[in-house]
């Protein structure tokens, strides 16, 4: 049984390997435990103060201050994670497109992009996100309705999505 989102993402990192890119990583609540697994981790956030708190920890993580929508790193990643419902921070016109384009630029050909969304009034529903992913060139590999790998239901408060780059048509 997975007890937290951190344990879920650690399992995904163990399954898919690195290097790992943690987007909107804040003070490193997820990046640090994944780095403790001896995986190469890069954490990106635009909040310099949060990154300074993260960097104060004695872990081997590359911290990058940047807006993830404009990210241009010189490498690709086996796992890209946008955790803790951060997808909801990108609601204005074009923001989700820019975010997904940045993920495409940084995802290794066989890599996995994972994120979670809350299903609540006024927020994108899983169906809306599926459509956005398809348009952006991703295909869904798996979806879960909770941190214990349960099925997505209409009543699921959270939807966790794992996707890959779509095969060229």
TrEMBL record:
Entry keywords, A to Z: Methyltransferase, Transferase
Swiss-Prot/TrEMBL GO biological process terms: methylation
SUPFAM superfamilies: S-adenosyl-L-methionine-dependent methyltransferases (SSF53335)
CDD domains: AdoMet_MTases
Record GO terms (molecular function): methyltransferase activity
Domain Methyltransferase, first and last residues per copy: 20-111
Protein name stated in the entry: Class I SAM-dependent methyltransferase
Species assigned in the record: Scleromatobacter humisilvae
Lineage of the species this protein comes from: Bacteria, Pseudomonadati, Pseudomonadota, Betaproteobacteria, Burkholderiales
């Amino acid at each position: 049984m997975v007890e937290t989102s951190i344990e879920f993402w650690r399992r995904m990192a163990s399954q898919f390997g690195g290097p790992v890119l943690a987007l909107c990583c804040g003070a490193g609540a997820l990046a640090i435990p994944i780095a403790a697994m001896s995986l190469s981790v890069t954490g990106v956030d635009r909040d310099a103060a949060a990154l300074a708190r993260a960097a104060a920890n004695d872990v081997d993580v590359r911290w990058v201050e940047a807006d993830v929508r404009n990210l241009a790193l010189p490498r690709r990643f086996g796992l890209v994670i946008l955790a803790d419902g951060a997808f909801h921070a990108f609601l204005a016109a074009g923001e989700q497109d820019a975010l997904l384009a940045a993920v495409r630029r940084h995802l290794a050909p066989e890599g996995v992009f994972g994120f979670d969304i809350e299903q609540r009034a006024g927020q994108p529903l899983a169906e809306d996100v599926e459509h956005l992913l398809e348009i952006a060139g991703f295909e869904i590999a798996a979806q879960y309705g909770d941190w214990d790998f349960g099925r997505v239901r209409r009543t699921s408060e959270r939807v966790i999505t794992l996707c890959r780059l779509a095969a060229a048509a």
